[in-house]
Amino acid sequence: MPVSMRAPRRRERLLVWSVDLADPRWDEDAAAARLNPEERAAADRGTAPVRRRRLLVRSGLRTVLGELLGLPPEDVPLAVRGGRPVLVRARRAPAAGLSCSASGDLALLAVAPGAEVGVDLERVAPDPGGDEWLAAAEVERLARRPRDRRAADRARCWTGKEAVLKAEGTGLRRPPCTVVTPPGGRGRLGHWWLAPLPVPSGWVASAALDRRWDPERLTLHTLAPERLR
């Protein structure tokens, strides 16, 4: 069956869903049934919390893609390349970039019809460790910020870097210190358009696309457990 995706309206340039991994209503068996054997094997190699996260994130991604493509979730042609999910598509079918991220009990699923995308989510930590991954300009910028804002701003720097590294497909093979994020985590970075995502208090998230997009017009959707039954 050819893979196609309805062309989004301008405000739908980026589609993002949040997943509450701590919700006790998730049915892990139903989630596992939507995965292929390789995906289930990858989930089973993790500890119980890791297995749960992998099952819910991958089955959630299959669920939203199935709705966009008009396919059963288990028939969505997903593959893994370079450690990230990609949509295998027929010749001349519209492309869609995919990206996922999880931190603590929250996960994000992103689909960008016609674009490359990277998203990253981080729980704000009061003592995140060393600064070796920061560029000199970012270290100076953070030092000027109010002390009570530094943890969130530091996490914002990291999510911006990770979003770009995921979007370009290099991941941490490229040193994060070579990605210098703009103030506020919003702006042009090479040919990537970077901006924060609206996530619950206590987390920060960023998305990078290879084309202009308006974060003010983005709605964070919620993937409810009932969608996976």
Detailed description of the structure:
The chain has 5 helices and 10 strands, in the order E-H-H-H-E-E-E-E-E-H-H-E-E-E-E. The chain is an alpha+beta fold. The strands form 3 sheets. Strands 4-5-1-10 form a 4-stranded mixed β-sheet, covered by helices on one side. Helix 2 runs antiparallel to helix 3. The longest helix has 22 residues.
Please name the defining characteristics of this protein.
229 residues, alpha+beta, 10 strands, 4-stranded antiparallel sheet, 28% helix
Task: Summarize the structure in short.
The protein contains five helices and ten strands. Helices cover 28% and strands 24% of the residues. The chain is globular, with a radius of gyration of 18 Å.
User: What is the total tally of β strands?
Assistant: 10
Helix content range: 25-40%
Note poorly predicted spans.
7-11
Q: Tell me about the largest β-sheet.
A: 4 strands, mixed
Order of helices and strands: EHHHEEEEEHHEEEE
The structure class reads alpha+beta
Distance N to C terminus: 24 Å
Outline: globular
Mean pLDDT: 90
State the strand order across the main sheet.
4-5-1-10
The number of distinct helices, counting runs of at least 4 residues, comes to: 5
Q: Strand share of the residues?
A: 15-25%
Rg over alpha carbons = 18 Å
